[in-house]
Amino acid sequence: MEDEAFSNISGKAISLDCQTHSSFCREFTVSSPKMSIGKVMVYTCSVWLLAYAVFFFTENTAVLSSAILITLTGMMLHIHFVKVDHESLLVIGSLGIQVSSSYASGREVTTFIEMSRIKDIVINEAVYLNQIIYYLCVLLKEPSEPNVVSSVVPLFQSSKPRLNCLAKVYESCQEILSKCQ
Amino acid sequence: MGPDGAPSQSVPWRKVLWEWQPFPDNYVDQRFLEELRRNEGIRQYRYWAVVKEAGFVGQQLSCVAIFITLWLYMEQGLLAPETLFWTSLTCALLGYGLYQALTSQTESCSDHRTHLADSQSAALFLSFTFGFSPVLKTLTESVSTDTVYAMSALMLLAHLVSFPYAHPSPPGSLSLNAALFASVCLASRLPGALHTFAMLTCALLVFALWPCLLQRIRANAPGQFTGVCVGVCVGGVGGLGSQSLGGAVLLSLALVSVTLICPLLLVRLQRHKDNIHGPWDEAEIREDLSRFLH
Amino acid sequence: MVLKIFFPQCCNRAESGLLVGRWISGHDSAVVLAVIHYPFIPAQVKQYIQQMQAQSRVDLTVLGSWSLPKDGQEGMESFLRDLSTIFPQERWLQIRRQFGKTGFSCEVLSRDQICGKNPGEKAEKKKKKSEEDGGDAEREDEEKVIFVHYEQRKVMLSQLHPVEAQESGNGSEPNSELRQVFGTVARSQPLFVLDRYDDGPLRSTHWQSEGREASIVVELLKRASVPLGLLLGRMLSVWTWICSARILSVFPLRFLFSKLSTCVQLSYRTERLQTLGAPQAAPQAAAHMDFMRKANVLVSVLLDVSLGVLLMSWLYRDQNIAMLASNMVPAADRVAQKLEELLQWLMGAPAGLKMNRALDQVLGRFFLYHIHLWISYIHLMAPFIQGILWYGGLSACLGLTFALSLLSDMVALFTFHIYCFYVYGARLYCLKIYGLSSLWRLFRGKKWNVLRQRVDSCSYDLDQLFIGTLLFTILLFLLPTTALYYLVFTLLRLVVVLFQGVLHLSVDFINSFPLFAMALRICRPYRLAEGVKFRVLCEEPGTALHLLMEINPLKCSSVVQTYRTPTYSCYPRDSWVALVKKLFIGELIYPWRHKTTKSD
């Protein structure tokens, strides 16, 4: 069990937690940076100031209460659907790969990919706005056509770690995959 | 000579970029400008010939002025619509006779229209204009007068700009349409339906038929052409002068500049012309680019 | 190579015995289905397994032995190991739990190890020792084992998505390992019938249903549903016979039926009910889809009818119908009055726009006369409105959708004048737009070349030019008047179309929403599985890896997508841009679409 500090593509600190359950079962957890309180304050204050400005002209208190409601629901929706707390990758040799991301509210979205559908795990590069980023992805194949990559599942999509972190994950994954061929 | 100097060897330099040569990239030799040609196909203009051609532009300007003068008279009630109508009809018949006479002098028709077709067209013009004149009368009722004037001025300008001065015989669509639009706009401000009718007949005469006749005169009787142009110009200035002196002054200034000063400038500036041609002419894209627009 | 053992959670605390299950070929994994406790007679076990194999068409075998040592059962292990000679297998699993440990330990004996028993035994013991020491030295050459614990009941009942059509019982196994596991557990249902409390020769541990009290009620319902279904089917066939009568397919009637939403809804409902009576599809996967579709249709019909009855009970209480009818004529009058005011406003100088006075007057009078006609039509109808409403309300007993469709049709009939205005305005406007566009080409000296589909330049004759320009000027100056009338009546029409569209959408929603599947997803999330997810259970050094397999329920959006009942599409087929374009050039828009049934 080790916990190291890396940074994501925008320079924020993230942590990679690598847990070895067995020689062929490893779990990698990438924790995204926490939501900064300043940002929350800025958004909340701007909405409320806007609401107060409207209230100043219309003198309708419904504006203020609706602003509070909007802020609350916005925050709830944000932590439930947008803000990803950590993403984990569970590699189980000869069984498959499980990708899960848990949101800040505790909601967890999990997908399991069977070994018979996995062709390989690779590090890919992509153009992201004005920079080139690297990402880890699972190449899938159809059992009927084992030589063709049918689709690609990108991993760690919301935390977007940098290459050094990805390389670490990649090496351990490849180790397990090659052991279980 | 290239800035980097030429290495001395036996391989001759070729003006190509697609193959490797033992020269620096920016190297050129003496043969580089051999194929340069200057002012290819230039025409030497003579002043009075240019003035004569410019006379056509001047007389078209005057035609517009005459039309406006007639409209002004009609609007102030100084000219009865019947008078205008009969006058223009007589003028049209006279002009038609002259046109026929000039035609029979030279070529016996190649794509000639019969008298029957001509009279059919004339009947069509007259009946349509007469039938629509009450509608046209009410057309611009709710539009403000300034808008109508602005629109007419714009359209007359478009007529003057797009008029095909080189070959006016079948009048250009845009120029004729613009002039007719302007005359419909102006005619609809007149007090009665008969006024509208007469005004449109007159517009047809001035903008559609007169250029055909003038072209025929220019082709077949070049001696008289200058006289006719001068006459029309004097008529235009005089007519406008009877209504507004400032307009007449402006018109005469415009006429002088178009027929005398502009040709002078053209002949003068011709000396400074320096057009170069050569094998480096930029590529011309002849494809229809409009399909990229949508 | 890693050996995967799918172990049911209910067998965690089973007494020692034999493991019954299946080896999954090609994936090196075993599914444990049940534990048969000792004492047993091996011949009986063999017979029982053969019987089960015939019933479930799963090649069941004895996988190995299971031991949960209790006090005073020390000699058990050697006995269990001896069993491997009685049930000859390629590989023999020995799974045991030990005191003080939550994890299992497993040994795999291959055939030669079983045959040369004594040296093998020693080797095993050695290995065990090394395991207990926690040493990793010998692990490399050892076969590794993953225990995957699953909940037998959920896995048996769940259906993996996407449902594969070719997955069937004709021998072609699916390629995916998980699908094979799910299929095996689902098909070995006969194995789970053997009760724990039965006094048979064999006792076993596996998932068991808690009881069968409710089954009497279910049985009674089943009995009752047979004649009911028969009756409904007979009525349905009579109805379809009436529908297929030739007199109804004559041109004007058929056209009318395709435009009246009540008739469309009727035919749709008939079709759906006919599918309910269709015979069940044979293969397993198709059967699942078929069952879900039928259940969805049935539940939505029942909901529809109950909502309709609710509506009816409101309608026929306290003279509600009379009240509605008496309100309707004044409402129509008020609408007409408002329209008249609007027309009067348009005939003046609306919003300071420059309208052509003569044309304005003509159009305004024309529309005013139309309103007058419509009002007299309404007043003629006034005595019958209550009757119409009373009989129309009866249609609600067929379902809420019928009532809504009828309402939509009635709205269409009552706002017929608005439709007429709209059509006149649109036709006039369309004519103007087309005329202006072609005359504008003439104005520039161009024409539309039909053969090459492009604009070419063209030299016109003098008279063509003259008349074209005259008409262009006239049309241009008259355009604002027509455009204003068109705009106002299009807005009115859009309000009606919007209302009808909302009605159609709600009818479509009731028709197509997979209510049963959605309820199943909410109440029994494991029944519709999208996949599985694993959790690492316990980590003790020296035991194998234990994973817990949980079922990942299908997302609600994909539930709707998969089980949505196909219906005539009522959603706008053309995009908003196309609609705006149509409005701009004055083409007619309709609330109904080309009704083509979506193919599944």
Structure characterization notes:
Chain B: Pathway: Glycolipid biosynthesis; glycosylphosphatidylinositol-anchor biosynthesis. Chain B: This is Phosphatidylinositol glycan anchor biosynthesis, class C. The complex is a heterotrimer of chains A (181), B (294) and C (600). With 181 residues, chain A is α+β, with helices and mostly antiparallel strands. Chain A folds into two domains: 2-35 and 83-179; 37-81. Chain A contains three helices and nine strands; from the N terminus they run βββααββββββα. In chain A, strand 4 and strand 5 form a beta hairpin. The two termini of chain A are 25 Å apart. Chain B has 294 residues and is mainly α. Mean pLDDT of chain B is 83; it is low at 1-5. Chain C has two domains: 2-205, no CATH class; 315-513 and 569-585, no CATH class. Helices cover 56% and strands 14% of the residues of chain C. Chain C has helices spanning 42-56, 76-86, 111-115, 117-133, 152-157, 177-187, 215-243, 251-259, 261-276, 284-315, 320-347, 357-394, 400-414, 416-443, 462-512, 515-523, 556-563, 576-585, and strands at residues 2-8, 17-24, 29-37, 61-67, 91-97, 104-110, 144-150, 159-160, 203-205, 446-449, 454-457, 528-536, 545-553. The model of chain C is unreliable at 117-141, 166-171 and 594-600 (pLDDT under 50). Classes of the chains: A alpha+beta (181), B mainly alpha (294), C alpha/beta (600). The interface between A and C is medium-sized, with 23 and 23 residues.
Order of strands, widest sheet of chain A = 1-2-3-4-5-6
User: In terms of structural class, how would the helical and strand content of chain A be classed?
Assistant: alpha+beta
Low-pLDDT sequence parts of chain A:
none
Mean pLDDT of chain A: 88
Q: Which regions of chain C contain 5 or more consecutive residues with pLDDT less than 50?
A: 117-141, 166-171, 594-600
N-end to C-end Cα span of chain A? 25 Å
Q: Could you tell me the number of beta strands of chain A?
A: 9
Helix content of chain A: 25-40%
| CA-based gyration radius of chain C | 38 Å
Number of alpha- plus pi-helical segments of chain A: 3
β-strand amount of chain C: 5-15%
Number of DSSP strands of chain C? Answer: 13
How many strands, what sense, and barrel or not for the largest sheet of chain A? Answer: 6 strands, antiparallel
From the helix content, strand content and strand pairing of chain C, which structural class follows?
Answer: alpha/beta
Distance between the termini of chain C: 44 Å
Domain Phosphatidylinositol N-acetylglucosaminyltransferase subunit H conserved (chain A): 88-157
InterPro entries (chain A): PIG-H (IPR044215), PIGH-H_dom (IPR019328)
Keywords (chain A): Membrane, Transmembrane, Transmembrane helix
Pathway (chain A): Glycolipid biosynthesis; glycosylphosphatidylinositol-anchor biosynthesis
